[in-house]
Design a protein that fits this description.
Blueprint (H helix, E strand, L loop, with lengths): L1 E9 L4 E4 L5 E8 L4 E7 L3 H7 L5 E8 L4 E11 L7 E2 L5 E2 L7
Parallel strand pairs: 4-6
Antiparallel strand pairs: 1-3, 1-5, 2-3, 3-4, 5-6, 7-8
C-alpha cells in the first residue's frame, strides 16, 4: 500500500455504519480534479468525521491506497465547508439546529 495526500471534495453522501464488534466506519466517494475514489474511514475518529463532513466539503486527506484504488483515510483536514444559507454556527464552527430560541 502506498501513502499519499489528496486534496479534493466529498462527492457523495456519507454512510456511517457500525460493525457487530462496535467499530464505527464511514464510506464515501472522494473526487479530485481528475479521478474519483472510494474511501473508508474506520476507527474511533469516524464518528467525529461523520459529524464534521458532508457532501461538497473540501478536504485534504492523508491516506493509504490499495490496488483497487480504494482509500483508507488516516487523517483529514477540512479546508472548506459548503455554504448553507441561513445555517447557524457556534464559536467552534459546528452547525447548530435552528430553533425559535435564536429569534
Amino acid at each position: 500500500m502506498d501513502s499519499i495526500i489528496l486534496r479534493g471534495f466529498v462527492s457523495s453522501e456519507l454512510r456511517a455504519q457500525r460493525t457487530k464488534q462496535g467499530t464505527i466506519f464511514c464510506k464515501f466517494m472522494f473526487g479530485t480534479h481528475d479521478q474519483e475514489y472510494e474511501c473508508w474511514f474506520v476507527g474511533k475518529d469516524a464518528a467525529r468525521f461523520a459529524y464534521d463532513v458532508e457532501k461538497g466539503t473540501t478536504l485534504v486527506l492523508t491516506c493509504l491506497v490499495n490496488d483497487k484504488m480504494q482509500i483508507g483515510v488516516q487523517s483529514y483536514e477540512v479546508v472548506e465547508r459548503p455554504i448553507r444559507l441561513g445555517q447557524v454556527f457556534d464559536s467552534n464552527n459546528n452547525r447548530l439546529l435552528i430553533t425559535e430560541e435564536f429569534f
